[in-house]
Design brief:
By secondary structure, the chain is of the alpha+beta class. 52% of the residues lie in helices and 13% in strands. The protein has two domains: 76 residues; 129 residues, OmpA-like domain (60s Ribosomal Protein L30, Chain: A).
Amino acid sequence: MNRRTVVRAMSVFCAVLLASGCGNPKKMADLESQNQNLRGQLSRAGSDLASAMKERDLINERLKAALRDAEALKAELAGRPEPQTAPAGWTAVPGGGMIAIEENILFAPGKATLRDEARKTLDGIVSTLNSEYSNKDIMVFGHTDDRPIKKSGWQDNWQLSTERGLAVVRYLKEHGVGPDRLVAAGCGEFRPRVANSSEPNRLSNRRVEIFAIEAQPRTGREK
């Protein structure tokens, strides 16, 4: 029962009391009982109202805290860079993109001469470099597995990986990528994708990675 109802009931009670007079003790006792009951209801209604107001204040505080958290998150997201995207087949990296090409697409085992079949793949990469990444440095990294060089004539895997990187760089230059953008490097077996613990893993580690990234001051090339 709310406060308005209790007050109205009290008014009715008082009117009944005045109309009935004070000559009938039984009526007086009944009226007193009703009065006590109404007072109890009024007290409970007041307690319920206080509890509801306290709960409302608590909800308001929680709402204010949630709004503050939402504003803080909004400000944090506004300060973050836009998600990076990359063309099909490429992986977005800070400042540009990267594509990895498996060894068997580009080279025969132990060789640094490009296969004829590699041309189609590299021609697509040239097109992407000159359209999507026309203002980027192009860094080409050769990678091998950990098997030592025995019969192919290279001094070590570093030399083989570097020669493969150079072969790709020369192809890119000959097919329209500016030479001032190009850098070749060899990593040997020292930057594997996965542990060289099986033949499938070694096959995955034998690759050439091409990075198209922001021009760095150390390269001596201006944007």
